[in-house]
Amino acid sequence: RVCVQAPVGPTTVDRLQRHCGRLPTVRFGSTETCLQVMGTPLYLSESERLDAFKAGWDHVFGGQPQTGYYIGRPHPPYTECKIVKSTERGQAGYMVECAEGEPGQLVTRGGNIMKGYVANPEATAKAIHDGGWYVNLGDVAFWLKNGKDGGRDFYWLSRDSALLIRGGANYSYEQINTELAAFVARQYGLPEEAVAVAVVGLRITSEHEDECCVTIELNTPEAKAKSAEIESTFLKHAKKGVSKGAKPDRVRVAPLPRNFKGAVLVPDLKKVWAELAK
């Protein structure tokens, strides 16, 4: 009942409870951290841990759903973790802790952290910052105060390659995709299943902030008939009708690049937008 390499959502928890009568034990870490920096605390009861899982699934921040997957707590005094606004030296919010529920970069330190990359001091300096903080996990997460014992529970949100940074705040692609897809369906009178949206953040006109580049895929004849209208009016309508973090800067209507499982290929999408921005 130990889960690795994947977020633990409601379906997994439900299956394990039905077939095994137990909750999964989640462990979180990476190769550079000697595998584990945190895990679901076994000193909490089954019901208390289930409540912690549910708190992440139901989480809302800034008025928008932010589904998080419970990854537990650090192991003091051996491992320490926190969520920060930025891990880029010289950038606003560098190593500044996020508020409760606010998405940010997950960083960690402890005696378990590697000493460095062999014969590569430059890579080591990028990965391990002052105070011994390892900043290369590459994960976006948030924390919530546990209502039972007051402990700080951590939740995985996404990889930081799926993070848009603007106005000193972090927004997950998933969060923006969900909001914009619902907006397109509502604004243009389409069923939600007729629309798919994928955003990427690119620093095109600024060295510090991402532009929100939106690709809209239309999947029914009815939706495709509105392609020209959507492409020409979406930016104007969306700037007035969506949250601050989801406001789009650029839009195109086109099929989304996907793998054989149907997942959007974000790197391919970034390449397309980088070419269009030239």
Automatic annotation (TrEMBL):
Keywords: Ligase
This protein's record includes keyword Ligase: yes
AMP-dependent synthetase/ligase domain sequence ranges: 2-117
Domain of life: Eukaryota
One Pfam family from the record: AMP-binding
GO molecular function: medium-chain fatty acid-CoA ligase activity
Record InterPro entries: AMP-dep_synth/lig_dom, ANL_N_sf
Biological processes annotated in GO: fatty acid metabolic process
Similarity section: Belongs to the ATP-dependent AMP-binding enzyme family.
PANTHER family in the record: ACYL-COA SYNTHETASE, MEDIUM-CHAIN ACYL-COA LIGASE ACSF2, MITOCHONDRIAL
Name the record gives this protein: AMP-dependent synthetase/ligase domain-containing protein
